[in-house]
């Protein structure tokens, strides 16, 4: 994990900790795994990077759907920090506070209000109108899929690598 400290572009990312944590989250590395790895090998690194690959033009609908769900599962795991299968209000508050931490004009209470409002919106999308005695316990992965429906995650969550050809210089 300490090797990630030397990546300059991560230094100023407000959710740096969550990104680094995702590389060591066994749920992202192997199916049906849980917990955190102490270190990752090259294959594990490539597995995590594969979540950021762009879509391929020859993918059919089934492949696109599976590709989309893989990306969303990765994001879900970043939010579900206690690995219980739900994103609770407190987990969501933590993420929003981290994301907005670099804004000096935004109070912590404002970030909390934003998170609370987003969680109420999630509840209305996923559960519908709730009674006064009903409590929304958190966003499940199925709820997460509903919330991201219609949002083009496939093209937004990717890493683009420069295609640089090596040229031999002879003198």
Automatic annotation (TrEMBL):
<keyword id="KW-1003">Cell membrane</keyword>
<keyword id="KW-0106">Calcium</keyword>
<dbReference type="GO" id="GO:0005634">
    <property type="term" value="C:nucleus"/>
</dbReference>
<dbReference type="GO" id="GO:0004860">
    <property type="term" value="F:protein kinase inhibitor activity"/>
</dbReference>
<keyword id="KW-0472">Membrane</keyword>
<dbReference type="GO" id="GO:0005509">
    <property type="term" value="F:calcium ion binding"/>
</dbReference>
<dbReference type="Pfam" id="PF00036">
    <property type="entry name" value="EF-hand_1"/>
</dbReference>
<keyword id="KW-0221">Differentiation</keyword>
<keyword id="KW-0963">Cytoplasm</keyword>
<dbReference type="InterPro" id="IPR011992">
    <property type="entry name" value="EF-hand-dom_pair"/>
</dbReference>
<dbReference type="GO" id="GO:0032587">
    <property type="term" value="C:ruffle membrane"/>
</dbReference>
<dbReference type="GO" id="GO:0005737">
    <property type="term" value="C:cytoplasm"/>
</dbReference>
<dbReference type="InterPro" id="IPR052490">
    <property type="entry name" value="CHP3"/>
</dbReference>
<keyword id="KW-0519">Myristate</keyword>
<dbReference type="InterPro" id="IPR018247">
    <property type="entry name" value="EF_Hand_1_Ca_BS"/>
</dbReference>
<keyword id="KW-0479">Metal-binding</keyword>
<keyword id="KW-0449">Lipoprotein</keyword>
<protein>
    <recommendedName>
        <fullName>Calcineurin B homologous protein 3</fullName>
    </recommendedName>
</protein>
<keyword id="KW-0966">Cell projection</keyword>
<feature type="domain" description="EF-hand">
    <location>
        <begin position="67"/>
        <end position="102"/>
    </location>
</feature>
<dbReference type="GO" id="GO:0030154">
    <property type="term" value="P:cell differentiation"/>
</dbReference>
<dbReference type="GO" id="GO:0030027">
    <property type="term" value="C:lamellipodium"/>
</dbReference>
<comment type="similarity">
    <text>Belongs to the calcineurin regulatory subunit family. CHP subfamily.</text>
</comment>
<dbReference type="InterPro" id="IPR002048">
    <property type="entry name" value="EF_hand_dom"/>
</dbReference>
<keyword id="KW-0539">Nucleus</keyword>
<keyword id="KW-0649">Protein kinase inhibitor</keyword>
